[in-house]
Amino acid sequence: MISTTPFSPAELSRAWLTHALQRCGSLRSAEVSSFEVEPIGGGSSFLSQLLRIHLSYDAAESGAPSTLIAKFPSAIPAVRQLSLRTGMYLHEVSFYQELSERPGIGIPQCYFAGVNQERSAFVLLLEDLRDGAFGDQLAGCTPAQARHALAELARFHAYWWNHPKLKQFPWLRESTPEMRDRLQAMYEARWPNFLAQADALLTPSARSFCPALAKNLRPVLENTAKRNQFTLGHGDFRVDNVFFPSSASAAKSLLVLDWQRVNRTCSPTNDIANFIAMGLSTEDLIAHREAFLQSYFAELVKSGIDDYSLSDVREGYRVSLLEILLFVIVASGLMEVEAKNQRSTNLAVVIFVRLLGAIEEANAWEFLE
């Protein structure tokens, strides 16, 4: 009998791991004879628990993975509930189930993806990536890494540009009036607490514009949502969510993870802004921003996109900075439930400071005047 799908690390079993690997074709006749679980990075990310599973088999079999990465819901009830309300667990599992066969960008192999909405639960079994390293948001990335990432991103956006398939999936979120209503209400409820906690980090312009950010940005976002163009957006295209190949294999594509915020978007520049504004030092951003935007645009053109101009990229990037700031402030509430996770706290500060620097550098505040 096939054991029940596990939605927590304690529910893992040899029988289920064997079933999952046989179902995806990674095992034919061998079975998992034993396994050991190793927490990764303390066992948790911002929204999930991450584990490395070391596998042993009752017989040698070509292609059988020796390790897997298992991803489960956060053990923090408040984070699980937020993820349920926003559909983030469902989005990531659905991405791997529906779009991973031809995603348009490098992703890890997925051995199993399942979700249980009633339990606010999911499980992913993913390839344990080797021959490279994950980006580190705290340390930031180099201009060369950013250039590599944006080239891959442009090809990804071009692959899904106005793709009719993106309208076939009801789970794929997009910006709607109802979503903008909720975001504005969440921002206005969150801002007073955020101001009390982060006042020392605010620039004079931020102090002036942030109290009414959601209200004043709303018309700009509504105009963006009326654009005829759309594509697939990652939604959280940050340095932490990218696996860079080693220097010896630099010709290989990078791999992108954490698809909880995947979306159908009229703002492809959100992914650009997420990566360079929060992943580069202010000095590197000032030195390379315009070249990055031009190279992204050139890659779109090379891929056959002719209805999105360089001016669209430049203006979209500046608007995206403000939209990301809005989301960062709303999401900062998670810091209160993850207060014991020092890296998450440090990361929130670094992201916010870099983002404000990017907004100032691009003079994005003028959209709110």
Kindly summarize this structure in a few lines.
The protein is 46% helix and 16% strand. A hairpin with a 4-residue loop joins strand 4 and strand 5.
What keywords describe this structure?
369 residues; alpha+beta; three-stranded antiparallel beta sheet; 46% helix; globular; 12 helices; five-stranded antiparallel beta sheet; 10 strands; Phosphorylase Kinase, domain 1; 2 domains; single chain; Aminoglycoside 3'-phosphotransferase, Chain: A, domain 2
Task: List the SSEs and their pairings.
Blueprint lengths: L13 H10 L8 E13 L3 E10 L9 E7 L3 H10 L1 H11 L11 E7 L4 E7 L4 E3 L8 H17 L17 H22 L5 H6 L3 H13 L5 E3 L8 E4 L9 E2 L6 E3 L3 H11 L2 H21 L7 H22 L2 H4 L4 H21 L7
Antiparallel strand pairs: 1-2, 2-3, 3-5, 4-5, 6-8, 7-10, 8-9
Helix pairs in contact: 4-8, 4-9, 5-7, 5-10, 7-10, 8-10, 9-10, 10-12
